[in-house]
Amino acid sequence: MILWLDPAAPPRFPPTSQALAEPNGLLAAGGALTVPWLLAAYRRGIFPWYQEGQPILWWSPSPRLVLLPEAFRLHRSLRKRLREKGWQTSVDVAFAEVIRGCAARPEGTWITTAIIQAYETLHRLGYAHSIETWYEGELVGGLYGVCLDRLFFGESMFHRRPDASKIALARLVYEALRRGIGLIDCQMSTPHLRFMGANEIPRALFEAFLCRAIAPYPQPQRWSEETPSNWGEELHHLLSTFQSAQPDEKLPSANQ
């Protein structure tokens, strides 16, 4: 049995320890997709995920898939792709197009009209951000998520050309390293993200990082700025520096 949240009441969630084991992480239903509700949720590592026709469902899964920016695997094939002509990336240039690109899935989507409107509001306020991947001037991939202080909560990504979403993730890692973001939340585990360096950790460890990374009243951030032409090589240098200095540093796994 999960708790029903009154959308007219101030945002208040039950302890995440009350989340169901099956389906993994389901915590509560109801509430609202307003800015106060969403910020209160993300500060606790909770996110909305539901299908059209369902009430708003709030989740806190365990284990949690996360990516330490310095642990990102910039595979040789992706580094080669970044050097090819025609590819470009940008930040917060086409948020509306990116979130709709993520929603356009033939199998259906949880990114409803209400979700789109809510995250576009977060974007206008400086809490939600997008990474765009372009090929010869055409948007071919990207991702979006919520950033609170030193933690980026990834929401969704898409691609219309091979490697376009991987390039967007690489650019996100580059931004994280530059901006002091210590952790990228990937929410649910996928082979693709684990291949790129993500790791599953227990909920308790994730929430301990939340407490250190997010202030009680996180401030909005403005990310739009000119993209360095050599950001891919700069990312490779940053990762090489981190990984050679701390080759064995990683988060404990969910099994520890």
In terms of DSSP E residues, the strand content is: 15-25%
> Roughly how many Å is the radius of gyration?
18 Å
Q: Terminal Cα separation, in Å?
A: 29 Å
The overall pLDDT, averaged over residues, is: 93
**CATH uppermost class of the largest domain:** Alpha Beta
In short:
By secondary structure, this protein is α+β, with helices and mostly antiparallel strands. It has helices spanning 35-43, 76-83, 95-103, 113-125, 164-179, 191-195, 203-213, 231-245; strands spanning 3-5, 26-30, 47-48, 57-59, 64-67, 87-91, 128-135, 138-148, 151-159, 183-187, 199-201. It is built from eight helices and eleven strands.
Key features of this structure:
single chain; 256 residues; alpha+beta; Alpha-Beta Plaits; Aminopeptidase; 2 domains; 4-stranded mixed β-sheet; 8 helices; 11 strands; 23% strand; globular
Topology overview:
Elements: E1 3-5, E2 26-30, H1 35-43, E3 47-48, E4 57-59, E5 64-67, H2 76-83, E6 87-91, H3 95-103, H4 113-125, E7 128-135, E8 138-148, E9 151-159, H5 164-179, E10 183-187, H6 191-195, E11 199-201, H7 203-213, H8 231-245
Parallel strand pairs: 1-2, 9-10
Antiparallel strand pairs: 2-4, 3-4, 5-10, 5-11, 6-7, 7-8, 8-9
